[in-house]
Specification:
mainly alpha, two-stranded antiparallel ribbon, elongated, binds arginine
Length: 471
């Protein structure tokens, strides 16, 4: 609180000014310290003041608060918000949390009328409302970021719609795919991440305000009005549930964890692809760092950190699940531990989304290297087997066996499948004709995979067009 802060609010002084009516002495210093949440929940100040404005207007409209007091409170709240935004408020652990800081400062500005704002309200429904509003804002910000990432993926996928690379299973080259197709896989993951966040937003968008401490209130409040004023779809239906529910944060952290896991997979691929052993992609100086001892190094630190930060997000989810597990109804102070982890997870994920968007836009694919790798390791063996089925009407199991023999032959000669001669092939299966060579090149392989959702450049371009319409 500013220089004017009253001594009575300090631990070690008299009892707490806001709830200390029946207390004769101040709490022990360590009690004040463990009890205080202001160090982190000050971040809720905008949501807290928005909630107070809506509550105040409703109290006036219902005749519970006079117009004059309501006006004074609203003006005072504007000033408190300006002061906090300008960094002018000094936080005092004796005032515990953001709710009490706002009210105490309001009292300094407008006098005893400030005390009327808390009519028909408790910090329990207040914090539940503030935190929902905060998570809702975090979802909106993340959604915008994820949309930006999708746009980056689409742009790059379009550019590389026909760039052939090895597709992997078990991190062993499996079948050729295109880099555009691979990038579009991440587009789909991000689309589901946005869907999960949207689901979470829809469910959380109910207003706890007016549930008071746990049982509701005897004042003739209008919960529909406060819900509407704060952009909620409706008031929550049960006051006990409203003050003790943190599902919205758990759902947010679950969706955030899955999104972080997706980003960590792309991050890992960028780390692998940009290694000297792969050289599939190059990141520019903008997204790499050097080593202080090894001058040749170009390290993908941003990708590594995106990979690692998934741990923080998942940790936050686990932490809140553990806090909530087994808590009896309704509010318990345990629930004050919901915020730090959620704030931290949201910040970490938002940072990762931005960094990943930057890297997707920054990376340069090395088409030649990827193409050469796509051709290595008998990657078109499945195409050969499919050809035997189609052209010779062979059962797939037999075709698989014949292809295996051809791979073995090529391996013993140290050549690729397409470098075997027709005579070599006919020694294994006499009915094979010259036409087989058409399916052995990697370009032919990818362009033949025209099934819906497949890797053929025609399919990839169609998927990109459809995706642009979807977002
Ligand atoms: N700082 C508290 C929290 O974050 C606000 C609610 C306090 N309620 C109470 N009954 N002491 O949970």
């Amino acid at each position: 609180m500013s220089a004017k802060k009253g001594k009575e609010n300090r631990a070690g002084g008299a009892a707490n000014a806001l709830w200390g009516g029946r207390f004769a002495a101040a709490p022990a210093e360590i009690m004040a310290k463990i009890n205080a949440s202001i160090d982190f929940d000050w971040k809720l100040y905008r949501q807290d003041i928005a909630g107070s404005r809506a509550h105040c207007r409703m109290l006036v409209a219902q005749g519970i608060l006079s117009e004059a007091d309501g006006e004074a409170i609203l003006q005072g709240l504007d000033q408190v918000e300006r002061e906090i935004a300008a960094g002018e408020m000094t936080f005092d652990p004796a005032l515990e949390d953001i709710h009490m800081h706002v009210e105490a400062r309001l009292r300094e500005i407008i006098g005893p009328a400030a005390g009327r704002l808390h009519t028909a309200r408790s910090r329990n429904d207040q914090v539940a409302t503030d935190f929902r509003l905060w998570v809702r804002d975090a979802i909106d910000e993340l959604d915008a970021g994820l949309k930006g990432l999708q746009e980056a993926l689409l742009d790059r996928a379009e550019e590389y719609a026909d760039a052939v690379m090895p597709g992997f299973t078990h991190l062993q080259a499996a079948q050729p795919v295109t880099f555009g197709h691979h990038l579009m896989a991440y587009f789909e993951m991000v689309a589901r991440d946005r869907g999960r966040l949207a689901d979470c937003r829809r469910r959380l968008n109910e207003c706890p305000l007016g549930s008071a401490a746990l049982a509701g209130t005897s004042f003739p409040i209008d919960r529909e009005a406060t819900a509407r004023a704060l952009g909620f779809d409706r008031p929550t239906a049960n006051s006990l549930d409203a003050v003790s529910d943190r599902d919205f944060a758990l759902e947010f952290l679950s969706a955030a964890s899955i999104a972080a896991v997706h980003l960590s997979r792309l991050a890992e691929e960028i780390v692998i692809w940009s290694s000297a052993q792969f050289r599939f992609v190059t990141l520019t100086d903008k997204f790499t760092t050097g080593s202080s001892i090894m001058p040749q190094k170009r390290n993908p630190d941003a990708a590594e950190l995106c990979r690692a930060k998934a741990g923080r997000v998942i940790g936050a989810l686990n932490s809140l699940l553990m806090v909530m597990k087994g808590l009896p109804l309704a509010y318990s102070k345990d629930m004050q531990e919901d915020k730090e982890a959620t704030f931290d997870a949201a910040a970490a994920l938002s940072l990762c989304v931005q960094a990943m968007t930057g890297m997707v836009r920054d990376l340069e694919a090395n088409r030649e290297v990827m193409r050469a790798a796509a051709g290595a390791g008998f990657a078109t063996a499945t195409d050969l087997a499919d050809w035997l089925v189609r052209a010779l009407d062979m059962p797939f199991r037999d075709a698989h066996h014949v292809t295996g023999a051809l791979v073995k032959l090529a391996e013993s000669k140290g050549v690729g499948l397409e470098q075997l001669t027709l005579a070599d092939m006919q020694a294994v299966e006499p009915r094979i004709t010259e036409a087989v060579f058409e399916v052995l090149g990697v370009e032919n392989s990818v362009s033949s995979r025209t099934s819906y959702g497949g890797t053929a450049p025609t399919q990839v371009r169609a998927a990109i067009r459809a995706a642009r319409e979807r977002i």
